[in-house]
Design brief:
globular, about 35% helix, Tsr3-like, cytoplasm
């Protein structure tokens, strides 16, 4: 599955996971929205959760937006594609370690790959990051359970179990 990132460039370049993904040929960066291909867009504002059922709609393309959390408003995600929100997961990156829903671009793409039952691709994507394997380990159970779901409603039901425990 090909990973694409619409890159806004408003984060610290030294901490930007999208730029690192590009450097290691793990993702294709687009600096204009016009070049972003159609696929499944990872959008925290989407009304539906990402599920394994979305893999057929992805057309082998995952799209993420790389921007600061401060500017991650709904309008920023106005890309063509099927918009889906990631379910409850915990960040492993040094800036937001342990915080739910505060994933880097690399973590978001890897999570989507895991939900699509592509763990090896997710591991490969996160290989350039010293905390990459920690993300997969930290979220191993929820990612496995989300990948076993049939559709978005089942993913939301599993997510609700984790949120009830928080």
């Amino acid at each position: 599955m090909e990973c694409h990132v619409y890159y806004e460039g408003d984060d610290d370049p030294k901490k930007c996971t999208a730029r690192r993904l590009e450097k290691f040929d793990r993702a294709i960066l687009h600096r204009s929205m016009g070049g972003v291909p159609y696929g499944v867009v990872l959008n925290p504002h989407a009304e539906q959760a990402l599920s394994p059922a979305d893999k057929t709609d992805a057309l082998d393309t995952l799209v993420a937006l790389d921007c600061s959390w401060e500017s991650a408003e709904e309008a920023a995600f106005s890309m063509n594609g099927i918009h889906r929100a990631l379910p409850f997961l915990v960040a492993a990156n040094p800036v937001n370690y342990g915080r739910p829903f505060r994933l880097t671009t690399a973590e978001a793409l890897a999570a989507a790959l895991c939900i699509f039952d592509e763990q090896e691709a997710a591991s490969d994507l996160l290989e350039p990051f010293r905390w990459g394997e920690t993300f997969l380990t930290l979220n191993e159970e929820p990612l496995r359970r989300y990948a076993e779901c049939a559709d978005s409603s089942e993913v939301v039901a599993v997510q609700d179990e984790y949120l009830a425990d928080e």
